[in-house]
Amino acid sequence: MTVTLLDPTNEEVPVARQVTPRPAEVKGRIAFMDISKRQGNLLLDRLQEALEQRLPQIEISRYVKPTFSKPAPDELRQEIKAGNDFVVVALAD
Amino acid sequence: MLGVTSFSLTGLSGQETSFSTDRASVVCFVKEDCPTCRTVMPVLAAMFKTFADHIDFHVIGQTAEGNRQLAEEFELPFDLLDDSALKVSFDTDVETVPTLLVTNAKGQTESERIGFVREEWQALVDDLIQQFSGSECDLDWSALPEWRPGCGSLSVDPMHAGRLQAEAEGSPIRARRIEVGSLDDEFEFMFDQGFTDGLPVVPPTPERVLRMLSGTKRDAQEVVATMAPNMAKVTVEKIAINAVLAGCRPEYLPVVIAAVEAVCTDDFNIHGVMATTMGASPVMVVNGPIRHSLDMNMGLGALGQGNRANATIGRALRLAIRNVGGAKPGGTERSTFSNPMKYTMCFAEWEERSNWDPLHVERGFSPEDSVVTVFAMTGGPTIIMDEDSLGGDALAGSIGASTSTMLNAKAYGFSTCLMVVSPEHVDTFKRDDYSKAQMRRRMQVASEKTVDELIELGVTDEQQARLSKLEPDTRLSKFGSDEDIDIVVAGSEAGKCTAFFHGWIPRSIGSIPVSSKIEV
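Above: the input entities. Below: the structure tokens describing the complete assembly.
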């Protein structure tokens, strides 16, 4: 006798996403997103200084997520995607 | 032989085609990823050209995308019909594709071919030539393989079979059915599948889930909410399955549904609550008449084990968050220590034991409404035991001062709390006709610290810079506003205690308590 059980999960298979191929060099527009964790801005400040010294062909734009506890709003994600080639997300505390 | 019942399907051209019982028909079931179906495509094309004037021709594909691919690749002269719902395949009892059926003018099946046996297909075509066209079929049979087995029909695939069976039986169940073999232990199987919180769960058989669904009038397929992190559509049925796992009775289901609605709001922010290292978890407080009909515990031991409704309603919500939402420890659930409340935390308010407005009335509901309210709490219940405060001011001050180290002794102005006041403490407040608003204010005053006191405890340069803008004797509140303190009543008649749940991050940056009316 087999027992039939009903699946308690959502049954949906997540889309498998590929990591974007790494470019040979970093140049162009880079988004720096502060997720609003404490001192994330400090981390990004230091990183921005370091990158701008070493990578003259970049232009960094700063973005701030309203709260670290929720996913970034769609509009912010679209804005970052439309205006940038790379994104750095800072987690700090 | 298999029998064809009447059907109507849409072809790739957008035209609808019906099976007629007035004319002879060829009906063939195929699917794109079956190599044998691909083998017979040229045969079906040649048959169509030979017989289409004399006999209806229905080639039925089992996926819409597969149909598009087949039509493109084989330049088919007929309109491939879309049975991606698999209803016609199921109704015809097709187990293998290709399955070819020839029906007479009464709709009865006269010939049947399953898979591809060249000799048998050729014999069938020859028979049709004799009956109808008289002219040869333009086909080089010798170029075809002698024999190819078919593939399994999608309608018997376990991914679809349960749904099709349930639809045929008029059952409300659509969830995937999982067969556990007779040599397997279903309890071990559910552990292995990750369906449990670490404790055994009740096997969610279709019978039990149907009984659970009898606890609500809502449609089993109604989508109650979208739940992070999977952004999963949570149906009443999925909640019912998890309620079975948790050990609920059917009459508890409406409470679990309302709780799912509450936690899946942007205000409550279940994603952040589950993800935080601080180990937050929903604490559920039930108000209104349903407390009595479900025999919930609001008295002795209300916050602990021993009452089925309290224990299993809280557990059902957590299992739904785990199984449907997908928040699992080590995945998106990242708590440093976690918390026993992550198994279950649900209790009822003893509304009748105080003269205060109960929680749901404070939050704008009618006393006759049954309501569940969810709070994101990181710790507790810790006990504030106070037998020495004999008046409202003294007791509220004592309770307030006890909150001053919550999260940490310097954490001022950014959290929340839930206070569960016992009957004996309620009586102390009652003697002084002390209101909840007075209690909140007094708690805030009693837990205040001055800027100097906070700096003295050791702060970062950034905090020092911020605090130094204020006068050194400025007094800061533990909670950002009095409304960040919630108060309910529960517990036994004996014990001068208040139970203290520690909050998480308040307001829109973290979590806001949410109340949801329970639809019975």
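Note for the figure: Chain A touches chain B at residues 1-12, 14, 36, 39, 66-71 (CB under 8 Å).
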